Amino acid sequence: MRILFATDLSTPAERARDLVRDARWPEGSVVRAVSVIEPYGAFVGLAPETIMEFDDIAVKDAAEQLDAVAKTLARSGLTVERDVLIGRPADQLVAEAKEFAADLVVIGSRGRGPFRTTLLGSVSAEVVDRAPCPVLVARTPAFTKLVVAEDGTPGAQDAVDLVATLPIFKGLQAIVVSVADVATPWTVGAEPPMLYSASVDAYFEMLDQQRATSGRLAATTAERLTQAGLSAKPKTREGHAAGELVAEAEAEKADLIVVGSRGHTGVARLVLGSVARAVLTHAHCSVLVVRTRPTTTKAAAKAAEGVPLHA
Question: Are residues 60 and 20 in the same domain?
């Protein structure tokens, strides 16, 4: 497995470092620790030679600190690399994830209190939006209990696949949460009473169907994770998905929320909203966001390879 660990070498980043250090990665995994230096010229109008001097000092200092991080992470069965990147942090990290062919990006979060959204949005959330692989935003130095979101979508299935197969999750407690989210009907004052009654009846019928579906999804996934070596139990909640996932994590004192994402960015994210983004913003704990893999049917894959469909 190839893990890209992004650190700004700050005190909050030490939590992410400790998580990477202590996690049970598969034997033969490679961890690449990187830190990004944004050139001084991006901030101030200094003379070129002064900018180069400041940049050289910053790179040298980051390299020394990364050496110490690499020594902390080193252990048998794990290869540790390190590098200092120069440029805009989010752009550099996304490019590095692609170049390194990362299976997972681990990044810290400096967000806290009422300003968490603003601080998070600068780097971590953008990396989540753009990275070609799952991203773990680490707010705790370890995790022992996780909340796994299950809504039956391909993104959720990919997230469950990751939890079921990675050894770092073996033996942990997992609460599989499926949220029944049906909007409450609203009416205008002139609406006939019979129409209002019909809309309410339809709402409760949809809610019952959602409860049943959510229950089945949670139970099936909990059983799968149990067979994969976790101690998993199903849970159904009602309301807005992101808020209920965060509330469940807080109630259970979970260290990690695992959520799938369709990867909407830009205008699409603003218009459609994103459960993953909302969880990432408001959760008190670490969050693992698993992007939906490109969908390729078996027939399409064979056709692309020139293989007869009946083969």
Answer: yes
